[in-house]
Structures are given as C-alpha cells and as structure tokens.
Amino acid sequence: MSEFLQFLFSGLTVGAVYALVALGFTIIYNASDVVNFAQGEFVMLGGMITWFSHAAGLPLPLAALVAIIATAALGVAINKLAIGPARGAPVVSLIIITIGASVFLQGAAQLVFDKQIHSFPAFSGDTPLRFGGATIQPQSLWVIGGALVVFVGLWLFFTRTLLGRAVLATSNNRLAAQLVGINTNFVMTLSFALSAGIGALAGVLATPITLTAYNVGIGFALKGFAGAMLGGMGNPKGALAGGFLIGLIEALTAGYLSSTYKEAAAFVVILLVLFFMPQGLFGRRSTERV
Amino acid sequence: MKKTLTTTVPAALIALGLASVASAEIKIGASVSATGPAAFLGDPEAKTLQMLVEELNAKGGINGEEIELVLYDDGGDANKARTFATRLIEDDEVQAIIGGTTTGTSMSILSVAEDAEIPFISLAGAIDIIQPVKPWTFKTPHTDRMACQKIFEDMQKNGFSKIGMISGTDGFGASMQAQCKDVAGEFGIEITADETYDPKDADMTAQLTKIRNTEGVQAVLNPGFGQGPSIVTRNYRQLGIELPLYQSHGVASDGFIELAGKEAAEGVRLPGTALLVAGLLADDDPQKPAVTAYKAAYEGKFKEPVGTFGGYAHDGFALLVDAVTRAGSSEPAAIRDALEATQGLAGTTGIYTMSAEDHLGLDLSAFRMLEVKDGSWSMVE
Amino acid sequence: MPKLTVKSATLLVLAVLIAVTPFFFPSGYYYRVGALIFVNGLAVTGIVILTGYAGQISLGHAGFAGIGGYACALAPEYLGLHPALAMVLGAAVSAVLAYLVGRPILRLKGYYLAVATLGFGILVSMVLNNERDLTGGPDGIAVPELGLRGVLKDWGLNLSNGQFWYFFCGIVLLLGAWIALNLYQSPTGRALRALHGSEVASGTVGIDVARVKLQAFVISAVYASVAGSLVALQNKFITPDVAGFMHSIEMVTMAVLGGAGSVLGAVFGAGILTLLPQALTVLAEYEQLVLGLVMMLVMIFLREGLLPSILRRLRGRGE
C-alpha cells in the first residue's frame, strides 16, 4: 500500500507539471485554434528568469514575479509578431512557426543566460512530508496546488466571466465575435499573456523539483501537448485530467512494469484513446464545414 | 523583410567559404556537442579548448608556431559530427582533431579520421572507441568500464554483494549500465534491481521505491549525467533510503553538490579525478600543477566550477601539444607517432602513458574515490 | 523554346544541378554536403506526397527513417542479407507498419493527427534507444559497407567515397522525384489533391478518402525509410537520432519551407536547411536563434514556401 501511495505521489507531482503546461496550451488554442509548441519555452523561461533574478540579488517571490511578467510580455510579443501575422495559415505552417519560436527562444536563452543546469530553493523547505509510509516533497504540494488553482481560475474565467466567454466566442467564430462587439485583438493579447504567464508559473513552481536549463522546454511541450490532446484540446477539464493521467501512467508503469518503457506506455494510451475517441477524453465533437 | 531574407543566405554561404581563408602553421579541428542533450559536457569542452588555444598563442604557440582552432558544434548528432569531421579534414585541412563529446559522435568522427589518416583524440567514454586499437584514434577519458570497476572495488571493500542500479537512458547512462552489469561478477557483486529513467524525468521516487523494496540491496549506483543524478539524489533522501549511494564520474563537479543540495548529497561517493580535489592534493602529487593551473584559469575566466568533462578536453589538448612539441612537426603522421609514444604526461584526469596497444594510457589509479563530506568533495582512503 | 511539362522541367533541373555543381566544389567536403541534401531531399519528397498533395500532417516520419536505417545495420548481421537488400527490407517493413498504423491514425485530423504520428515516432525511437542488446542503444551501431563503390572500381570507375555517395544519392533522388511526379499526374494523385481541397467534398464525389490517404502515408513512409537507409549506409554508422522527434520536425520544415506543393520546392527547402547550419558555423552561438527566426519569417511572409515565392517574383518581373 505504501508502495502504491509512493507511486501515486510521484505521478501526481509530475502530472501536475504536465497539467500546468497543458492548461497553457488550452488557453491559446481556445482563443486562436493554434497549438503553441513554444509553450514549453515559457516554462523554461519561468525557471531561468527566476533563477537569474534570484542570483542577481532579488528575493525569490519578487524574482518569480519578474519571471512571470516578463514571460507574459514575451507571449504577447510572440502573438503580435509571429502568430498574428500568420492568421489563417494551414496547421502545418502554424506548427512550424511555433516550433520556430521555440527554437528561437532556446537560442536566445543560451545567449542571455548560460547552458548550465540551475535551481533555486524550494518554497517550504526540503523536509519531506509523510503519509501512510510514503513521502512527498512540500514543493510537490505547491505544484499540485498550483495546477488546481489555475484550473479552477480558468474554469471560472471561461464559464462565469464575460471576458472568458468572449475568448470562447472568438475561438468559435472570429468574425461573428467582432460583429457582436468583442475586441478580438484584446482577447488574443490577453490569451497569450495568460498562457505564457501560466507556463512561467509552472516553471517557477516546478524548478526546485525538476531543475531547469535552456533546453528543458521541448520536453515539457511534448508532454503537455500529449496531455492536452489526451484530455481533448481546448477543454481545461481535459487538460487537467490529461496532464495528471500521463504523470500517473508513467509513475505506475515505472513502479509496476518497466521504467524503461514508462513513456511508451503513456503514448500507447494516447494512441488507443485517440483511436476510439478521436476528440480526446473531454473534447468537443465538431463537424467540418465545407 | 523579404529582401533581407533572400540576401542573407547567400551572404552566409560566402562567409562559409571565407571562414577557411586565414591560415596558420598548426591547425587543430574540434567538433564537440556544445548544444543539444549533451551540452552539459560539450559546452565546458568547447570553452576549455578555446581558452587553452588563446593561452598558448599568447605564450608564443608551439615551437614558435601559432595554433589555429577550428571549432564546430555537432549538437550531439552523429550524422552532423560526420559532416563536420569531413569538413575539418577536407575543407579546413586540419592536422589533428579533438572532440566527439558523446560515444555516437566519436564513432562517426573516428571513421572519417581513420580513412583520412588524421589523428583524432576522442572525449567520450565508451571502450569501443579504442578497443580494438585503431591506428589514428586516441582518447582521454577513462572508460565507463573502468568507472564501474573502481566503484565495485570500493563496494567490495565495504562488503557489499547485492546492489541496485538506476541508470539514465541517455548514451552515457546506458553504456555505463551495460558495462557495470558486465563486470559486476568479477567483483562478486550481483545487481538485483535494475531501473532506468529518462534524462528529462522530474521524479524518480517510483524507481527508487522499487529498488528500496528489493530484498537484500546493500548499496545503489546511479550512472548518468545532467540533472538526472541530482534529482535521484534528492529523491533518495526524500524516501529516507539509508543505503550508501554511488554516483558516476558523469556528475563529478561542484555543480552536482549544489544542484542536489548539500544535505542530500552528503555521503555520496563517486570515482572522480584529481580536478575535483585540487586543494587536497599533496604538494608532490604529479598532477597538482596541471590541475591547479587549469582550475584557476577556467574558473577565473568563465565564473563556473570546473568539471571532469572540461578536464578531458584539457587533457586532449595537452596530449596534442606535447606530441607536436616532441615530434617537432605538424605532419599528421608525425603527430600520431608522437601521441602513441606519450610517456607520463600528467593531465587533470590522470597520468597518460600510451603505447601501440593502449590508446588511452590510463589505469584505474587515475580515478580517486571521492565522497561528499560537509558539502564538498573529499578523498576516501 | 518548346514548352516543358512540370515533370520534365523538374527532372531536368535536378539532373543538371546534380551533374554540374561538382565542377564548382573547392574540396571533397562539398560532396558530403551535397549527398546530405539529396538524402534529405528524398525524405522530403515523401512529405510532399503526404502533406503537399494529400494535406496530411506527420510529426513522426523520422520513425520510418529509423526503421530504414536500422534495417541496414541489423538485417545483414542477423539475416545475412546484402545491405542493398536490407534497404529493400527496411522499406517493406516501413510500408507494412505505415499501413497498420495509418489505418486508425489517418481518421484523425489536424492536431490530433499530429499528436498520433508524434506518438508513433517517439515509440520507434524509444525502442531503438532502449533495446541496447539489439540496436546498440543511444551510442549507435555500425552499418556494413554497401560495396557498390568497389564494384564500380572494378569496372574502371574510380570514385572517392564522397563522390560516390554524392552521385548515388543524387540518382536515388532523381528516381524518387520521377516517381512522385508520375504519381501527381495519376488518378491517385488527382484524388489526393482533391482531398487536400476538401475531404468532405471529395468523399461525396466518390473518392475513397481513407484508402487514398493511406496510400499517401505508406508511400511517404517508404521514402523516409530509404532516406534513413542511405544515411546509415553512407555513414557506416547509425544512432537513434535518425528517428528522433527533431528529425521529424526537420523533414516537415524542409518541405514546407521550400514549398511543399512541389518536388523541386521541397528539395530546395532540404538544401536550404542542410546548408544553413553549415553556413552558420561562423556565428555558431547564434545558430539556433537564426534557425528559429528563419522558420518563423518564411512561414509568415512566404506562406507557400521559398521556391514558389521566388519563382512568382521572378515571373512578375519578367512580365
């Protein structure tokens, strides 16, 4: 039992990071139908900027705030400069643009910062907490809590606020949204800022556990993308569930079957789910317009 | 915007041709993985080579001749490494090559170098690089097999016969995992738990729990490099595992202690080089001058701790400079012969003595068993 | 001047490029770069069929390149096959696998198809990385010599290693381009292009959408597989990088960057992206920065790809 509990904690810790990345994907996708492969770089930047500012003398909370704001600003810039001008391009082109942005940000990070691995202190110390014979780091609770808070926040935002519904309306039909008076440009700016900010927050929360370096982004992006697709792209519920599911599948496979093929297990599950539910677990069914 | 784009590409192509115009008497090529998954190894190697060439030229070069370094970044990709090796030899016309951060890139470079008969000093661990001996290929790092032997020797001394292993699935971890499993029997050691993790993984408690729950495990060994071993070490303490933890030479640097945290790293053992304990070396230690000079220069210039891997590049360059000096010539064949005749050259990794049968020139004594004590490396007697 | 068809014009341009550029090579290294461009061009021609003609996305085609490459390493050792036959075997395995995987996967659309193909590619690369006893693991494995160069030598045609692979890969690329261009004009090709326009519409006019998509997927897998084999045989060594995610991305980027709608555009894209890292060694630290920038700028400003945009501009000037 304590063994199972330990695997569960491991899966939840990792899954929370994936879920945070997946939630970031969701917002941009909802506003623009773009899957932003640079999402992982926001996580990297959240960690690297925090480390950099902290090392330069800022207190940790302030450093984290700087990182989140700077990354959010960068997200807005990416929208204005790269994704906005490519509106209406085919999916392949959009994938290449966002991967290009990801490569670009990596290149910039290795110049501005360095190529070493970095970390900063955990928020509530390193003394593990014990539950039923298993242990968990206090920082894991920060990440799990962060994922839940962001999820609830987004859910309320999309269902209860006018602005959130405006985002969804923009996604469904941009022109119609404009016609009913929604400032779609503002919606896009907001979505990218929010998404990049959440990515950076993931980096801030996770770095004391995962460590960070200029090239960690692509790994986060792939897992987050997989999580978001598993849950059904565009649905915060799906992103949360998908992210945690992948983390849990990995940990349980590593614990009970083979650690070598734990990632394979995650992708096999994704493939199987997509075979039977082509829209993911919580995805919307849509009909193609001709 | 469109205009600048179409003109920059041809401009860069012209630059490509121009890059090889400047000529020096001695031209050394290097292809290392300064970016990509092995960047933690390749980046300090690239920096070390650039720094040493600058230093040497400031002192007047070798036998009065300046050295030119042509350095490429292969990103850890074997196919790219082969292209750069071809470029170094056919286009830049270098007289010797240092590089090949990973085993895969080293294998690619060596096949080109052997065909072209250009001496090549590899910076990668696997034993296949120099065994069987290839006439033009040498290497500076001890093999991962030797690291396993050194660790098992220490385990044997402590009476451990059943151990658990948790290895990274990157080239470094996988190769060392295989070598350790291969030699374990010679030391009466049985590997009863054998787990792996992906280098990008964030949490290894599942694997470590499995190892902990395996009957009779007396110690744990973690072959790997990058952030993985730091996370393993933290998770190890988090789970409260009391068994001795051995790391590999892949994380032999002060950076590891910092990343894993001083508390978590306390008591970790690994086979390291003199470089990590420069301050603790006896004054008559033959490696002391090389080690202290390199450490001071590197840390002064780049403001980051030296590591074993930068040390490999240092030794590769030292071997080459020594060979060219003794050969009194920069002909590839003369350099090769002189390299093979290297006698007692003290580097940061160990003391090299090459021969026609041995293109590594190190034995187990090059490794020192180190342990983290009070947050820094100390030597184990 | 008599009017050339697109097909003969493309083949002529490629043939002339392959034959004439070596006269301007300052050193043997350029043969190596040329050979790489042709191999990449071949893989990318497959992407043209899948993405350019049929409008389907794959982020996992490097998986097929990996199968082709490792077939050349493993089949000679375990099955005693000649490396050339190993290449054929690899292509056959890739085709069968593409057929089996493609049937369920190709029902997906857009990003869902992207993640499914991505998953497939990652699974292949994981097996190559982890089955160390068989594949040599991440450190790679040796590949036997093709041996054709020796045969040519006996016939009195003495080529350097670099020259041999340059011309050999060039000829395979020409062959691949010829097949792709014929396909374009065939009924299947027309069906594919209809599909690209609108799947729903082509379904209603009686095109068997699923079958046609599957055909494109299988053919493009064979292209990737042969390209992977050529890399392995040329390097006499192979590592799992060939099946990696970044290699899949690279293939798609080459195709779309150059212009995925045409074979020549795609080969042009392969040329640009193969040359770029070589040219950027002069500013090594900025390589990733520039590469990312090029990917974004071309896709934003030259949406149909480099070659079509350049051609249109030239034509515009001529009028």
UniProtKB/TrEMBL annotation, chain B:
SUPFAM superfamilies in UniProt: Periplasmic binding protein-like I (SSF53822)
Residues spanning the signal sequence: 1-24
Keywords for the protein's UniProt record, in alphabetical order: Amino-acid transport, Signal, Transport
Family matches, as InterPro entries: BCAA_transport, Leu-bd, Leu_Ile_Val-bd, Peripla_BP_I
Domain called Leucine-binding protein: residue spans: 25-361
Pfam families according to UniProt: Peripla_BP_6 (PF13458)
CDD domains: PBP1_ABC_RPA1789-like
Presence of the UniProt keyword Transport in the record: yes
One annotated GO biological process: amino acid transport
Family classification: Belongs to the leucine-binding protein family.
PANTHER family: BLR7848 PROTEIN (PTHR30483:SF38), LEUCINE-SPECIFIC-BINDING PROTEIN (PTHR30483)
Protein's recorded name: ABC transporter substrate-binding protein
Organism listed in the record: Paracoccus kondratievae
From TrEMBL, chain C:
CDD domains: TM_PBP1_LivM_like
Localisation per UniProt entry: Cell membrane
A GO CC term attached to the entry: plasma membrane
Keyword Transmembrane helix in annotation: yes
A GO term for molecular function: branched-chain amino acid transmembrane transporter activity
Superkingdom assignment: Bacteria
Keywords: Cell membrane, Membrane, Transmembrane, Transmembrane helix
Topology versus the membrane: Multi-pass membrane protein
Principal cellular location given in the protein's record: membrane
UniProt xrefs under InterPro entries: ABC_transp_permease, LivM-like
Transmembrane segments: 29-50, 82-101, 110-128, 164-184, 255-276, 288-307
The name this protein goes by in its record: ABC transporter permease
Native species: Paracoccus kondratievae
